[in-house]
Amino acid sequence: LGWEEFVLPFRSLTPPAPDPIRKGAIEVTDDGVLHIADSSGVVVKTAAALDLWRATTDNDCRRHNFATLPVGDFAGNIWWSEGLFDQKRTGVQVRKEGADTVVVSTYGTLAEHTMTIRQEADGAFRFCNTIVYSPELRDLPRVGLELELPGTFSQVEYWGRGPWENYADRKDGALVGRYRQTVDEQFYPYIRPQETGTKSDVRRWRQHDIAGRGVEITASEPFSASALHYAQEALDEGLAKKQGHSQEIEPDDAVWLCIDKAQYGLGCVDSWGRLPLRKYRLPYGNYEFEFKIRPL
User: Fold this and answer.
1) In angstroms, rounded to a whole number, what is the distance separating the alpha carbons of residues 289 and 148?
2) DSSP 3-state of 3
3) How far is residue 135 from each of residues 82, 147, 225, measured CA to CA in Å?
4) 141 and 52 in contact (C-beta within 8 Å)?
5) For residue 252, which phi and psi values (nearest 5 degrees)?
6) 77 in helix, strand or coil?
7) What is the pTM of this model?
8) 63-91 pLDDT tens trace
9) Residue closest to 179 by CA, chosen among 198, 156, 201, 196
10) Which runs of E-coded beta strand occur in 8-97?
């Protein structure tokens, strides 16, 4: 059996009813911490930081002999050698430009991220992002942001590919639909900890508690997203292969939400590190993307 999806050459004559407008407020502190609040108080408090890393997969790296193996063409080894792992924000400037808030963040010499935040008439906040990467970098693991949300935001509703995880070069078997899941269900316990849980071609992502309070993320173009009780760094063993197991990692109290313009493909042409096809890689360059966050 098989299936395929395609766009019909017509649109519905009855537009969907718009969601009720819920006005919120946004504030960015001098150190770049973002506060999003609705009428009942603060919903989200997060650094809204650029996400430079993907927890490397079995296909990304040759850890067992990294110290003696040339970097070569193994994607994860290249990312490690370039210093992308655990590169935190090293500088931030916050300023107002009329009604907009502009946050300029630097990540060592690897990247500069300019984020312009504007409130829309529908109560949402638009985030316009421009990322300038260092020309010394080669392929990038991902282009996106990571938000730290309250651990009570345990419910996921999204419109995108599912219900299982899927990626740019591994998504034809996941149909576009509307899915309701939990954060715990996003984590697949591979024998060794690694990237997991991403959903691609997302149109809308809602992250909320059991009462429905939380946030909704939408964008002008389909994006990728994941929500885990683990930060990316927690799922990566580092340069040495430590023979760790996914079940040994303690989950965080927080929910780590990744919003990606794009993520590097998995490859998996073989099990020995062959790179994904060129169209599924993320070459060095300057990237722009935008999305909206609306309190629920």
Assistant:
1) 20
2) coil
3) 11, 26, 26
4) yes
5) -80, 160
6) helix
7) 0.89
8) 545 445 555 567 887 888 888 887 889 99
9) 156
10) 25-28, 34-38, 41-46, 49-51, 91-97
Q: Which two tokens stand for residue 29?
A: 């502190």
Burial class (CB in 10 A: 0-12, 13-18, 19+), 181: middle
Residues 6 or more apart whose CB falls under 8 angstroms from that of 68 comprise: none
Q: Which of 58-62, 95-99, 239-243, 250-254 has the lowest mean pLDDT?
A: 239-243
C-beta separation of 282 from 264 below 8 A: yes
Tokens read off for 181: 């899941």
Measured distance between the N- and C-terminal CA atoms of the chain, rounded to whole angstroms: 39
Rounded (5°) CA angle 106-108-109? 95
Concatenated DSSP letters of 165-206: --BTTB-TTSEEEEEEEESGGG----SS------EEEEEEEE
Cβ proximity of 131 and 175 under 8 Å: no
Query: Which amino acid would we find at residue 259?
Result: I
- In angstroms, the CA 100 to CA 242 distance is 47
